[in-house]
Amino acid sequence: MNHRSTAIAIARAVLATPVSRAQILERMARCTVFPEAADRTLVDGLLQAGLASHWTIAQVADALEADPFFDATCREALHQPLIRGWFMTRAGALAAPADPLRAVERPAWPGVGALADDLGVSVEGLWRLTRSASWQRQAPLGRQHYRCELLPKRTGGWRLLEVPEPYLRTLQRRVLDRLLAHVPPHEAACAYVRGRSVADHARAHVGQAVLLKFDLQDFFATVRASRVQATFAALGYWPPVASALARLCTTATPEPVLERLRTEGGLAWTQARRLRDAHLPQGAPTSAALANLCAFRLDVRIAALARALGARYTRYADDIVLSGDAGLLRAADRVEARLGAFALDEGFALNHRKTHRVTRARRQQVCNIVVNARPNLPRDEFDRLKAQLHLCATRGAAAQNRAGLPDWEQHLRGRVAWAGQLNPDKAARLRRLLDAIDWTT
Q1: Cβ burial 251-264 (10 Å sphere, 16+ → b, else e)
Q2: Average pLDDT, the chain
Q3: Residues contacting residue 246 through CB under 8 Å, at least 6 positions apart
Q4: What's the pLDDT tens digit per position in 356-390?
Q5: The pLDDT value given to residue 439
Q6: What are phi and psi of 11, to 5 degrees?
Q7: Measuring CA to CA, which residue among 138, 161, 352, 164 is closest to residue 261?
Q8: Is there a contact between 202 and 373 (Cβ–Cβ < 8 Å)?
Q9: What is the pLDDT of residues 417-430, one digit of tens each?
């Protein structure tokens, strides 16, 4: 038996049990015809090399072949570690995640079968929902698991929504509720996080001398399936399970949709390439949480840069904001270059056309919230809402619903409530007008 085959046999024995020195040694004794002291030496060498439950068989075999003791032993004809039995299964337990994730509540999905059972679908049904990217690109639209919707942008062109069919959406919602909702994103992430909002994103930058605003290109489409699979692997799931989860939560845009986007929407080549590869669909319930988790390292790096500059940093989906004193403006070119490099390193890209540098001498806005002195609605938006409420109170509410919104009253109440979150004093005037409206006529 050659060195590689011996290493693979031992690797299978090592991974047939959770990473515990005593249990591994017990398996080694059943795998090899080798002195017990030698078994201990090999196992201790693997543990010193950082052996972990999420390692693949190939990784363990590589570590063994790199071990000087293993190499020297295999070269001695009289003391080669002969293999007496092969273990064909791996330990059915979750691997230990990174230290910050150890407290995360994770479902026990040791294999694809267990994943399918817990999600309430057969293994065959799960396979049909996790086809390859090439199948998704080429299959007829009637057989796709996503419904593509093209929404017009205010600036021209189209925005693509890829909405999962109800049967797929149900499974994705279970993955979100049972796993992803329990994994905390970076503290700077304010979008799609329970207990955080766009108002928190804006409040972090109130009263600052300088705002630097950046935008990430195609935030969801940029997150590729390989990055999603790595995220599930980091949570402790074996490669087959991580791969199935990644395919369940990503899609590749069909060619007919890409062609329409190219001809009618001015789709750039880089955008088409992102959509052709398996990516997070904007419209799936799991995409927001996964995008935040995949951007965790980006958040860590930008937050470290902000601390070094004495600045504040938050991110709302693709909207990145740093704020600070006048020194931040002098460093703006270097900051933009560093953020661009960070984004590329982490699989994202800045849209440099949407980069803005705003001092307190101008109106500073974060996601359409004015932050110069306190969170507030833009004055023109406040005035329009005030005028609209006045007309509703004096001329009748129904006549002012020119867009034909189905629940006009709740729409207006929601806008007033939003104004109240930002500036309760100014919103009091809006509430008085709202209370004066007769909704029965």
Answers
A1: bbbbeebbebbeee
A2: 88
A3: 225, 226, 228, 229, 232, 278
A4: 999 999 999 999 999 999 999 899 999 999 999 99
A5: 83
A6: -60, -40
A7: 161
A8: no
A9: 988 888 888 888 89
For 56, phi and psi rounded to 5 degrees?
Answer: -85, 165
Q: What would the 3-class secondary structure string for the chain be?
A: CCHHHHHHHHHHHHHCCCCCHHHHHHHHHHHEECCHHHHHHHHHHHHHCCCCCCCCHHHHHHHHHCCHHHHHHHHCCCCCCEECCCCCCCCCCCCCCCHHHCCCCCCCCCCHHHHHHHHCCCHHHHHHHCCCHHHHHHCCHHHCCEEEEEEECCCCCEEEEEEECHHHHHHHHHHHHHCHHHCCCCCCECCCCCCCCHHHHHHCCCCCCEEEEEEECCCCCCCEHHHHHHHHHHCCCCHHHHHHHHHHHCECCCHHHHHHHHHHCCCCHHHHHHHHCCECCECECCHHHHHHHHCHHHHHHHHHHHHHHCCEEEEECCEEEEEECHHHHHCHHHHHHHHHHHHHHCCCCECHHHCEEEECCCCCEECCEECCCCCECCHHHHHHHHHHHHHHHHHCHHHHCCCCCCCHHHHHHHHHHHHHHHCHHHHHHHHHHHHCCCCCC
* Position 194, amino acid: R
- Token pair belonging to 403: 């867009």
On the question of pLDDT at 17 being above 70, the answer is no
Beta bridge partners, 303, equal none
Q: Retrieve residue 291's tokens.
A: 């995008």
The pLDDT assigned to 313 comes to: 97
